[in-house]
Amino acid sequence: MYDRAGPFSVGMGHFFDRLGEAAEKTVEETSAGPEGVKTKEAIVAITSDRGLCGGVNSAIVKLVKRNVEAHSDRIDATIFLVGDKGKDGLSRVVGKLFAASYKDVFKSPVTFDLASIIAEEISSRSFDTIAICYNKFKSVISQIPTKKNIAGLEFMKANAHLFDEYEFDTDIDNNQVLMDLFEFQLAAQIFGACLENSTSEQAARMAAMDNATRNAKDMLSRLTLLYNRQRQAVITSELIEIISGAEALQG
Fold first, then answer.
1. Nearest-5° angle of CA 6, CA 192, CA 97?
2. Which candidate among 21, 82, 209, 226 keeps its CA 20 to 30 Å from the CA of 11?
3. What is the dotted CATH code of the domain comprising 2-207?
4. Exposed/middle/buried for residue 166 (C-beta within 10 Å: 0-12, 13-18, 19+)
5. Three-state secondary structure string covering 23-77
6. How far apart are CA 149 and CA 151, in angstroms?
7. 215 phi and psi, to 5 degrees?
8. What's the predicted TM-score (pTM) here?
9. Do 208 and 52 touch, CB atoms closer than 8 A?
10. What local confidence, expressed as pLDDT, does residue 14 receive?
């Protein structure tokens, strides 16, 4: 599923990156903003519903915390938490910023419907930027905490003329078309990030369980060696006592 969803979300990202400026540059310019005016940013923090997966969840907690604290003077952050395991870590430091929490997401295959619900909730509010924090899957032994910035709906409206090269066969007005495109793009990016984070989670869990199994085998080997040494020491001690007793009787 990850292999199929990856090109889909990446393709959507490339489509919207063609809107004159890259999303990253747009977010930086928007975040700079007028002095004294804070940028409204939605942070989608994606964690797992289960533990025993190494540092996957703690990495996202640190990434979100670092992002909020570093830009607290110019960004008014609101957090949408996906997955249950990041709740404890985030609630201690940025709990007051929670807007919504979605748990039991990864106990069954992630669907585009769920991503659409989150995207619709974010779109219903007026955010200048959206940041998706997730673990990017690089390899079975490497997962990279990543923050993906997406420009808000106002950016699309301000650059609506860049869509002139596309012909939309629809009866609804352009603002509604832009709103639908924005929601679809956001849902696609969230869906892809959820799948990539889920893949990273499974890879990290496999590595963690492999390390735990290896450590358990090493511990068992050391305990077996220690037991054999103790047993041999007891046998040797008993033999010495028997031989000493026999010699005493003969003497």
1. 155
2. 82
3. 3.40.1380.10
4. exposed
5. HHHHHHHHHHCCCCCCEEEEEEEECCCCCCCCCHHHHHHHHHHHHHHHCCCCEEE
6. 7
7. -65, -40
8. 0.80
9. yes
10. 62
Decide the pairing of beta strands 75-82 and 39-46.
parallel
Q: Would you give the distance in Å from CA 235 to the centre of its chain?
A: 56
Longest dimension (CA), the chain: 117
Query: Across the strands, what pairs with 133?
Result: 45, 147
Q: Which of 165, 166, 191, 202 is nearest to 10 (CA)?
A: 191
Q: What is the dihedral of CA 16, 18, 21, 25, to 10 degrees?
A: 50
What would the mean pLDDT of 134-161 be, rounded to a whole number? 86
Structure tokens at 61: 């907690």
Q: Summarize the confidence of residues 199-217 as an average pLDDT.
A: 92
pLDDT at 219: 96
Task: Return the top range by mean pLDDT from 8-17, 33-42, 204-213, 241-250.
Answer: 204-213
Candidates 50, 28, 43; CA nearest to 76 is 43
Which residues, 6+ apart, have CB-to-CB distance to 112 below 8 Å? 187, 188, 191
Residue 179 near residue 113, CB atoms below 8 Å: no
* Length of the chain, in residues: 251
Average of per-residue pLDDT across 196-205 = 94
When computed from its CA atoms, the radius of gyration of the chain, rounded to whole angstroms, is 28
What residues have CB less than 8 Å from 78, skipping those under 6 apart? 40, 41, 42, 43, 97, 99, 125, 127
Strand partners, 107: none
